[in-house]
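Please predict the structure of the following assembly.
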Amino acid sequence: MGSIKDRVAIIGMGCTKFGENWDKNITDLIVDAAYEAFEDAGVAPGDIEAAWFGNFLTALPGSGQPLAVALKLDYKPITRVENMCATGSDAFRNAAYAVAAGIYDIVLVVGAEKLKDMGLSGLPGDEMLMSQYGTPNTYRNCSITPPGQFAMLATSYFQKYGLSPEEGKRMLAQIAVKNHHNGSLNPKAHFQRDITLEQALNAPIVAWPLGLFDCCGVSDGGAAAVITRADMAKRFRPDPVYVKALQIAVGPREGTMNPAHDLTRVEETCRAGMAAYSEAEIKNPREEISLAEVHDCFTITEAVTYEDLQFCGRGKAREEVEAGTFALKGKLPVNPDGGLKSFGHPIGASGLRMLYEVYKQLQGKAGPRQIKNPKLGLTHNLGGLPSGATVSVVIVGT
Amino acid sequence: MVGVIGYGAYIPFHRLTRTEISRAWGGPAVTGEKAVASYDEDSVTMAVAACRDCIKGHARGKVDALYLGSTTFPYLEKQSASIVATALDLNPEMFTLDLSNSLRSGTGAMRLAVDAVKAKTVRNALVSTADVRSGLPNGPKELDFGDGAAALLVGEENIIATIDAIYSGKYEIHDFWRPAGETFVRSWEDRFIREKGYAKVMTDSVSNALKRYQFTPRDFSKAVFYSPNPAMLSNVARSLGFDIRTQVQSSLYDTVGNTGCAQAMMMLVAALEEAKPGDRLLWASYGDGCDVYILTVTDRIKEMGNRRGIKRHLASKKVISNYERYLRWRNIVPVEPAAREPLQVPSAVALWRDNRGGLALYGVKCKKCGAPQYPAQRVCMNCKAKDEFEEYGFADREGKVATFSQDNLTVSVDPPVTVTTVDFAGGGRILCDMTDRDPQKVAVGMPVEMTFREVRFVGGIHDYWWKCQPVRA
């Protein structure tokens, strides 16, 4: 099996302001993200040889066409990628593989999602997905929403580690406070205000034990990357960012069927993380990784991800949170841009939005959020259910 | 000899006090409470519950017929008995029939069952009746009507009560009626109903039956008579010569309400629960006429323990806190929908493929490694063996809550929805909603059992599946 390490580099990135972009449609999000990336890379749209478009469900018809319609790429090959919440990261992965295979030299990846035209509170659940994908269209399943699914992760985590609801909710609230603080320093975030621990703890319950501030918002957004061969990268800029690992683990939803499956961890994150560390030749992630953008769709997801990605030991998330390990000035800053908590989760865009922050941090361009001298950054997306997920882990570095 | 060989009943977990209904409408204080079907229950689901209670310990393979009586079937065209029989995992080569449109449909179903067993065209016949009738808000029928179900198994072997005689009479009257297309039961003036309806028909029919079969009221341990309310029951029983204090079976009016078609059979189950060998029971229903049965309890009644029946279902309850919730459950007032995607219509094809898995809750068990799995798989989640499975039923297995959430965001008539991951004794795990629970008392490790419920009604399709519930005592 081969490795992507140091074969492909990012030479330009773009990211729209995330939020309730009432006055923008999907084309606007694509154009704004892609043209920022073109400018950043110093390439013209006509230089793009092929493109990958990450979109989950809001750009129809379901093909590469919405990207072609928006950018007029002159009849170039465009592949649409959908892989749940890992959609953006998987579009990036496939584009990188095409470059590494030597087929193309300069390619574009765009992830975009226009959620705020739908009028829904929260992401669509299985209801819409099942009607689109046809299985299981008996609707004989539990009537659960994404917050409900991840709330079950919290319930079992609290139970296993003996956390009282108060202790558990406090740990989660601290994660929310941290991410909203980081978001307050980011002009591209949807939510740019600090929140207090009390606000987080006293917020209305969405799905017990998760309250409003434990859940990410509903936002529109787009992000884009221009990538090229590693050996060509410095022709475009002095500080390209090199791809070190690209992994995806897709689970068989075993946690929904198998009582042996531990519901206090996400197996797919563990697997994708281990594969990525191996590919990037990382021995001690806690020591070697400079920053991580993880999938904080819900605060409990971030807590469990610390452990699944070996940033801390099993059951240790709470004490590490208390110690500030993952804060902006901590040992291993997690979600320095504010995370899904501050950006919402326009599904196809999220993976590339995370990569945008890591890219800017590695180039020293993260402004008030800048981490000192970062070398390696990681992004993590978790799609589906904690009991059956599609998880991507991407590692990039200088 | 033909007789009852098994009985069972079902009373919904939730009760609404009549005082609470009066509170809502400003009426006088009224005593008692009524059983209220949850928003996920209907005549089909309650019949399934009563039949499961009834056939526990009996050979399902010997049940050759199911006769189902109700005035509130979910479909006007499409059989409910076939849904119930499929959920009960009964033999496909059986006779199923819905009997509707009369409060006598339950006892009428019983008569068909007895005749069929007598004629030896079926071995054991399952008879069930369930009703979820509605009276208009702020009216007496809303106070009177409750929901419930009962089931009897009829056969020739191991009889617990012989059926010694049956008498039927028809009678034409508009006392209670509900025209096609309407939701609420209509009725004529009370005094007319009593004098020219219920009291006259019951008195005449029971007298005629006693005369024909040469019995007197003193020959019976219990008179088990349907009645719209306790006052009418007392009047009829007294005028027929029964002792009100010792001989008249309670109509369950104060605890369950008038369960329509199901009431007479629920009362009979309650009578059988208290019966002693040798007791003779006089059982009579009412509705467009009267069916009268004479039964004699046998020694085998002593072996009928371990049933929930009426007594245990009565003891297991939760009073719903307010009348407005009941209005919502019954879909009587429109409410603001959740800001979620609209519910989709299930595919009839997919439902048909899932008859066994969804309605009878069958999964599979791997023949190589023994792991039970739901829903049915082609490749084993555990040992990866392909197509090496045998069928494995989950419906009658108990489980424990592995984890749960109280989901306020999901589309529901009654949020929060308690969503659970259930681990079953003997293996297997299912994600399902929990129903008939007190949200405050849900905990990891809580023992649960499976119950057949409606999970959605969209596009004219009643979509049934299973939920878990805390084990009902």
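Chain A touches chain B through 50 residues (CB under 8 Å). The mean pLDDT of chain A is 95.
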